[in-house]
Structure formats: structure tokens, C-alpha cells
Amino acid sequence: MRRRSFVHLALLAAVIAAAATAVAVAIPWLPVSASKEREGIDLTYWLATGIGIMIFAIVAAAILYSVWRFRVHPDDDRDGPPIHGHTGLEIVWTAIPTALVTAIAIVSAIVLHDNGDFGKNPLRVKVTAEQFTWVFTYENGPAKGIVSPDLYLPVDKVAKLEIETRDVLHSFWVPEFGQKQDAVPGRVNPLKITPTRVTGLKNPYPVICTELCGLGHALMRRNAYVLTSADFKAWAQHAKGPAGATGATGATGATGATGASNGKAIFTANNCQSCHTLTAAGATAKVGPDLDKLPAEAQKAGQPLEQFVHTSIVDPNAYIEPTCPSGACPKGVMPPNFGQVIKPADLDTLVQFLVQSSKGGGK
Ligand code: CUA
Which atom of ligand 1 is nearest to the CA of 210? Predict the structure, then answer.
């Protein structure tokens, strides 16, 4: 009789485990894995998921079996039998979870250690978070000196991202690479990434801010490109320009393969739309001044329009427009480094684009 109960319980648990496994495996819960570090993270994920499925199956089977097997008659108002516990069972249900949690802790510790080991000569990239965009500064390798609004990495090479912030808390996350890392004022937080899949310039991964950092948080996104070693060198060469000048607009389309650059693409490539409204660029954010109203704002500032636009980009704190779409304009929020991030030629194009499209009155 007792043996038959165990057989029933085991069968029920096996069915539940199979169903839960099907849900875990058949549905693609995770983004594609694109870094060595992600492989270790996925291993701990699947280990914990497997343990979770096992425990769920045992507990659910015991509950369902009890409901079915020990059900009393609806008219039975007697108390249940008094139970004084079962020492052996209690030892077992304490020992097994302890062993499982210890196993997860050991695997996690190994993965964390590996994912924090940068090796001898990583590609170092300073990652600066700011309301509401990212800036990537290359500190060594063929791209040394380049300042880019997007992240470019060579495949199969260890990259050490040194993450910092210019203002508030942000958090760096590329889902395909696996790990998040906070950007904390006054600290430099490292993150190791060894990309394993080439994206090329067409299908980049998103760089996401995953810490609520203000009005433009949801739009604080950039691109992460993984290139072959040769393409990475070519990109670095192109971004540095013939004179070796620093400042890159990247290959997001602003100065893409065609070589044609236009103001709207530069506007988008530098994430201006995460803070500003500009009808000509389809931008509707309400953090900073309304760029459809630039002529009126220049008049208020007492400056010629073109000069006003140029100064506002390279030295944003020189003059703060008083009125923004959502109230008073925030002071010191516009990143002060666009003068370095945007190439001089692109800056001129962007200024002309803003002057022309705002003169159109936002049509
Ligand atoms: Cu930066 Cu959210």
C-alpha cells in the first residue's frame, strides 16, 4: 500500500517536472548569448532553474496527491489527527536545501571570479553615463583616444569597461552580454565583456540604462557593435579621421558607409531626442528646451540664432533657457562634452539642421 503511494507520488512529480521543463526550455526566455561572461551566467541560471523545477515538482505532487488521497467526506467535522512532527523528515528537508543552496553559491562564486578576471591586456574603454546618454572613451588599442556615442568592440577580445557617471546613478546593461553594472557617483565600476558574436554595423545590441535616473531614463539607449578585429581597426581608423583627430560620430548612420552625413542623423546618433522636442527629427521628449522654439529662445538670450545654437551645444551652461515643455529647464543637465563627442564638421551640420528646422516653426 505504502509502496504504491510512493509510485503514484513519483509518477505525478515526473509529469509535473516534465511540464515545467517544457515551459522552461520551449519558450526562449533569454536574449541570444553574445559573450563568454554570459555563458557562465546562463550556467548558474539553468542550474538554479533546474533545482527550482525539481523542488516545485516534489511539492506540487505532494499537495495534489494529498488533496486527492486524503480528502475527507464533506460532512466529516472531526478534528484532524494530532501530529508531533517527524525528526528524520525535518533533517532531510533541511539538509537537501542546504546542499542545493551551497552548490548554487559555489558555482556563482566561480563564475563571478572568472567574470572579474580581466587578464593581462584588456581593451580599456571608459564608459561615462550622464542624463541621458552614454559616452565611450577608448583608452588603449587601435581606437585609443576616440570618444564615441556608441560602443564598438572587437570580437573575442577581453574588454574592460570602466563605468562612471557625470551626475546621478545609472546602470549599464547589454542583455546579450549578460551582466549589469551600476554607474555610481565618485566610483569607477569595472565590467568585463568578451564578445563572441559579430553583429556588424547593421544589427547592434542595445545599451540600456537600467537604473531610474530621471525623465529621460527610458530613452537613455545607445548601440553596442561587435566587429571583427579587422573591421574594428578600420572603424578606429575612420573615426580618428585622416588627421588623427579625436571625436567620432560612429557608424550609426551619421557618417555611415555612404559618407553622407546629415543633421537629422547626427541629432539621432547623439541621442538628442532623449531630452528634446524637435518636430523635424520626430523628437517629442520634454526634459530640455523645445528646439522647435529656438528662434524665440535665441531672441530671449539676445544672441544671433546660429551662434546661440552652437554655444548651447558646446557650452550648455553658459546660458540656461528658462522655460522647458515640462516647466522650468533643469540646470547642468545637458552634457557639457558634446564639443568633444561630435566631430567639428558634424557639429556644423547639426547646428545648420537645428537652425533650418526651427526656422520652419516646427513643421
Ligand atoms: Cu540613466 Cu536611467
Answer: 2
